[in-house]
Amino acid sequence: MYNSLQSENIKIAIIGLGYVGLPLAVEFGKKYTTLGFDINQLRITELIKGYDRTQEMTVEELKSSKGLSFSMDINVLQSCNVFIVTVPTPIDKYKKPDLKPLISASKTVGSILKKGDTVIYESTVYPGCTEEDCVPVLEKESGLKFNEDFFCGYSPERINPGDKVNTLTKIKKVTSGSTPEIADFVDALYSSIIEAGTYKATSMKVAEASKAIENAQRDVNISFVNELALIFDKMGIDTSEVLEAAGSKWNFLKFKPGLVGGHCIGVDPYYLLHKSESLGYYPQVILSGRRVNDNMGIFVANKLIKLLIKKGHKIEGSNVLILGVTFKENCPDIRNSRVVDVYNELREFGINVDVYDTWADKHEVKEEYGIDLLEKVEKKYDGILLAVSHDEYTLLNLENFKNKNAVVFDIKGVLDKSLVDARL
Known about the structure:
Elements: E1 11-15, H1 21-29, E2 33-37, H2 41-48, H3 59-64, E3 68-71, E4 82-85, H4 100-112, E5 118-121, H5 129-142, E6 151-154, E7 173-175, H6 180-191, E8 198-200, H7 204-235, H8 239-246, H9 268-278, H10 284-294, H11 296-310, E9 319-323, H12 339-348, E10 352-356, H13 362-369, E11 381-386, E12 402-410, E13 422-423
Parallel strand pairs: 1-2, 1-4, 2-3, 4-5, 5-6, 7-8, 9-10, 9-11, 11-12, 12-13
């Protein structure tokens, strides 16, 4: 099996059909018999009907994957010999890694694992997690021996939700395996669908670490410009204008300040921190960056309150509209949205806060954050906060939503400066 990629020999199961798993299942389904497996019955039902609530895949794209089927029946997994785990790896309320979805998926796979099978993990973890946390579960559930009876690989996901240009096949893929032969097999498997090519790491730990530092690097860079925004705010300087001026130099890194949420940048550094601290080293730069970014919601809320006071508004009982609740623009993903921090802080001051987002699923937002999204904007507000730069927000006539002396705070810097009172 590992010397060739003959489609009739390979039957793939994708475990977890979210933003990462579904595009992967679709691409593999074009070349191999592929099963998309998820424990969410509604998700499976919708996908069978051709509907993807994440809006990553269209009906046509789902139909184009001729070898792809969907199921939540664990018995169907038994016919597969390559299992790719793409479940979430979040953090808990103490900002510690929450491996429950990963361990649960490993138990599921372990229960039907056979001799000769390969299990590939894509979920973002700390270096060593696959071998130290997942493999023992696979061995226990299957009764098989690692690297004798079954094998593992690690290929970190690089999906960018909402990005229709840098899609799965257009992004170079890091691969790795638990033995040199399996590393070759995993690399060849992904090479068969990834147009941008692959990079075969020297070990699974190296591949795990590469993913961890990708997002930690972005987190630290964003925390730097966020800290600049805090400093320049005290100086009365527009941060966007400073960054535009500095960006005129060819090697200046053009990061922008903002709320850092989502399933990657706002979460993954904590996995690296956890592993580092368990080994007795307490990283200062990464931890400092996380503190800055985690507190930006409070800064944004307090900045808006100051702007309201400056324009003569009474804070308690004032009305504020937040435009956007997803963690990024033009995407329905609400995971780890830091807009919620702003919402909660404003509410603590007695402000009436409405949230409007045409991309987000109102039921998911209600269930996850307890916020009732507006169906449409029907009244005027004392303050308007543009929190997420969905394309349609740039076309809104904000005058229709403004009370007298209303404040407009654009934290994304996408509106004309003449239309706003402040930018982040």
